[in-house]
Amino acid sequence: MMRFPNIKTDIDYNQLRSGLDQSAKALSIYPGAAIDAINYEALTLDGYARVDGYERFDGRGKPSDGFYHYIEIILTGAISVGDTVAGAISGSAKVIYVGSGYIAVTKTTGTFQKDDSLKVLGVSQATITVTPTKNGAPTGILNATILNIVADEYRGDILAVPGSGNILGAVMYKGVAYAFRNNAGATACDLYKSTASGWVKIALYYSLDFTAGTESIPDGTAITQLTSGATATLKRQVLQTGTYAGNNATGRLILDNITGTFDATNAIQVSAVTKCTSASAATQINIAPGGRYEFALFNFYGSTDTYRMYGCDGVNPAFDFDGDAYIPIKTGMIADTPLHIQTHKKTLFLSFSGSLQSSGVGTPHEWTVLAGANEIGLGDDITGMIEQAGDVLIIFTRNSTWQLSGSTIADFQLDSLAPETGALPYTQNNLGAAFALDDRGVIQMRTSQDFGNFESNTVSRKVQPTIDSYRSKIIATAVYKSRNQIRYYADDGTGFIQTVSDTENGLAHYYTTFKYPNNITCAYSGEDSTGKEVVLLGGDNGHVYQADKGSSFDGGPIEAILRTTFNHFSAPEVLKSYRKAIIEIVSEGYSSIRVHPDFDYGDPKISTHLLVGKEIQGLGGLWNIDSWEQFYYDSEVISALSIPVAGTGTTISFTFYSNSTIDLGHTLQGIITHYTKRRLTR
Question: Contact 331/317 with Cβ under 8 angstroms?
């Protein structure tokens, strides 16, 4: 009787984590780290998640929130994609998919019912055989395919911000998105608001200077000017110097509904009582084209309705906006065009090249020494400011970093934090600590042992080649708080992701990269009306996008590549015959992934392994816990994809590839590798 040799198979498991590592030695690098990671993000614990999509936004229904009804039918005539079908009893919708014995419809009104007749242009074409179900396709791939068609249907309704050129700024304020873009002729910049019917232009009002103010006039009051007889509705009264009690207040009246012509000399009255005297004609507020917007949301006053948006763009004066009235802030500078903005200690801070200027405490429109305004020269171009715990404002210049402590002009103290480390513009963020991008890489400013002081540290050394390739191209950043991430956007649609993980050994920083088909011009992280995090991205095509929505890049495929480091299984000089790999993966819906093993650090003398394609039908669920329509009863909560491996080498790496518009996202968690040790290499 022939005896087969007893071949021992070793089984090894390694978690996928740690992100790109371009600095560790080949033999000591963690086997779950990545050599390449494009359109994957490292999670704070374990795993790599394929990045989510993004979709255009204008306030209308989001494409990814659209749904369809799956209708089983007996076809007696003809129904085509694009037809409007109407039930004889009730219900009408647009047909977006036609299959054998069923159709899928969206933009439904009413309710379709079993046994109802479906009509096209009044002629019966089919009979409904089963009560229609919402998102009810029987397989994961069919459901994903139809949902993508639904998203395309709604995507076509969403328009770019009217005008020309880049989105210059996008922001979430009181749960509403606003965007700045040059008009069609690039002769001015317009401000738009997102609504249920799309972008709506914000009207700019008129400004009139006043002196000898004796009383604050409530918003909405009707005013009249003596002699000229001109009338208007007051939108806001802005105090700049003096006091009403002293009868010497000066400032501006923001006006609407003007009749007649206001002159620059006569009294302004309310109900025949003089409140102030005009010091200028009423002039239309306008916004010059160009610029790059930065925002600070804050409430300087006592009531809940005075939470306002403040901003600047380097071309126009800073501004104050309450959702209705856009009001320029006059600082008195000859070139009144601040580039960066921040609020701190109830004071508004603006930067003018190397000059840091602050308003009076609680008075963002008052910029006189008597009101507590101040100026500090830093000798280098200021690139941004971040407020930190401990009552400290960190100020970045291009080549150095400073901290401002104290509460008012009386006790402000400026100290150097990092005299040789600064930051690039628009790269400063708060994520438990202050982070910024400098020539050296990603810099973390953290509290030192000396109370109230900070120290800097470079936290991106293991991916320095990646940082070097992006550093000169980064033009925007955004914090993703729910993911503990900062994303750095380059001017060509690419960028990198920093994930901050709180480990038992302190903060760890994981990096991966992304590549978008659209060029991003600005980014903003805020909250919608429910308090949910929203990240807005502005594009060079005039669209505003919402990040982390949908299964595609605004209708385009998401191509994702993850290549693990080469694993030698603690035996770098031992040849191994690889038998099988089991991939742990969690999928939000249907996913199709190709896997390619590679041996011996990619030695070209070793035959290329065949690509192995795998499909996951959808997310599994737990009976009586998860909701129907959100999982597939025959799918696993965590899928274990088993792939055959046939190859020999001292090391093995795995490349994962997907390219899809219908994959709602998947996470690669770990790899179990089966192999047999053979002999020492010679």
Answer: yes
